[in-house]
Amino acid sequence: MMNKRWLFLILAFVMIAFNNMSANIAQDAIQKPEPKVIRPNIEGKDYCRILGGPPESIVMRSGMVLLQPNKTVGKHNTEVYEELVIVLKGLGEMILSDGKKLEMKEGNLLYCPPYTEHDVKNTGSLPLQYIYVVARAK
Predict the structure, then answer these.
(1) 17-21, 71-75, 77-81 — which is least confidently predicted?
(2) Structural domain of 13
């Protein structure tokens, strides 16, 4: 009877040690991002990725969008991500699922919380250019 208890205790200790070791290995596998200057090049394209998550950043993802007049990016949901949109040039609107519209014009920053369905539409006569940055909220 005593041997079974010892065997159980040893097995439990090995499992705890293995779990801790796995967590440390997983943590060590996460590379620390390096500081950098990023010069996105959207010339001739509608989209340019800026940050794609690890190892470029810890959780942030971002891109630059060039949206032609009267075009939309299409309805999408932020799901577990917060989104910040920085308008560089042009005119447009962020259309929320409830019909509310947020003005997009040069210099405006728009915040979109997690689990928010929205679309972006260029309402101007020139291309709408913006950068979006998303980060996992949970």
Answers:
(1) 17-21
(2) 1-30
CB 78, CB 133: distance < 8 Å: no
**Sheet of strand 81-89: strand arrangement:** 47-52, 61-67, 128-136, 81-89, 109-112
Tell me if 42 is assigned to some domain.
Answer: no
Structure tokens, 124: 């101007």
Instruction: Give mean pLDDT, residues 74-99.
Output: 96
Does residue 92 contact residue 120 with C-beta atoms inside 8 Å? yes
Q: Give Cα separations from 111 to 74, 83, 120, 132 (angstroms).
A: 18, 6, 13, 10
Same domain, 6 and 54: no
What are the tens digits of pLDDT across the range 11-54? 444 455 455 444 444 555 567 899 999 999 999 999 999 999 99
pTM: 0.77
Domain match, 8 and 55 both: no
Domain count, the chain: 2
Q: Does the pLDDT value for residue 90 go beyond 60?
A: yes
Query: Is-contact 94 112, C-beta < 8 A?
Result: yes
Structural domain contains residue 41: no
